[in-house]
């Protein structure tokens, strides 16, 4: 399990048929693109990395800067965020998406989320036992 921090945002918009709109919605749903990113810098980097994934190549921060028209500092900032999210890896100064497909990324996220929820549930069970709380299988609100 590689992913340690997961942000999921439910989008109200319906996906459009345009691949760029779909990639934007996909990234927004994963919490990759913040509203502070006025120039859509992270989105632009993500698009280049997805194209590199399709081509089977890895890119340096300088190559990403050249392809996006962004400064190397901006590139490194967003790459660090993508690496913290477990989506991008850096190996020998080259960056790439950790997965063969975006669907694989989502499946890994699903596995990570399920494991995290199981751990939180174990903790809750331990707390319930320590506080002598009893479960009846039903909520008190019912």
Q: CATH homologous superfamily?
A: Winged helix-like DNA-binding domain superfamily/Winged helix DNA-binding domain
* CATH class descriptor name: Mainly Alpha
Helix-and-strand structural type: mainly alpha
Rg computed from alpha carbons, rounded to a whole number of angstroms: 19 Å
CATH topology: Arc Repressor Mutant, subunit A
Corresponding CATH architecture: Orthogonal Bundle
Shape: elongated
Q: In which order are the strands of the major sheet placed?
A: 1-2
Helix content bin = 40-55%
| Low-pLDDT residue spans | none
Span between termini = 37 Å
Give me the number of helical elements: 5
Oligomeric state of shown chains: single chain
Could you give a short account of the major beta sheet?
2 strands, antiparallel
- How many domain modules? 1
Give the number of DSSP strands.
2
Protein architecture, described:
54% of the residues lie in helices and 6% in strands. It has a single domain, classed as Winged helix-like DNA-binding domain superfamily/Winged helix DNA-binding domain (Arc Repressor Mutant, subunit A, Orthogonal Bundle), CATH 1.10.10.10. Strands 1-2 form a two-stranded antiparallel ribbon. By secondary structure, the protein is mostly helical. Helix 3 crosses helix 4. The protein contains 5 helices and 2 strands.
């Amino acid at each position: 399990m590689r992913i340690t921090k997961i942000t999921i945002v439910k989008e109200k918009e319906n996906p459009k048929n345009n691949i760029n709109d779909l990639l934007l919605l996909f990234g927004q749903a994963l919490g990759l693109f913040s509203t502070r990113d006025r120039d859509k810098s992270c989105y632009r980097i993500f698009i280049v990395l997805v194209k590199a994934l399709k081509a089977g190549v890895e890119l340096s921060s300088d190559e990403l800067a050249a392809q996006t028209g962004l400064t190397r500092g901006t590139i490194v900032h967003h790459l660090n965020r993508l690496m913290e999210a477990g989506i991008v890896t850096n190996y020998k100064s080259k960056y790439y998406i950790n997965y063969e497909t975006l669907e694989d990324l989502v499946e890994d996220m699903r596995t990570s989320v399920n494991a995290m929820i199981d751990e939180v549930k174990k903790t809750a069970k331990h707390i319930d036992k320590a506080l002598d709380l009893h479960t009846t299988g039903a909520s008190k609100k019912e």
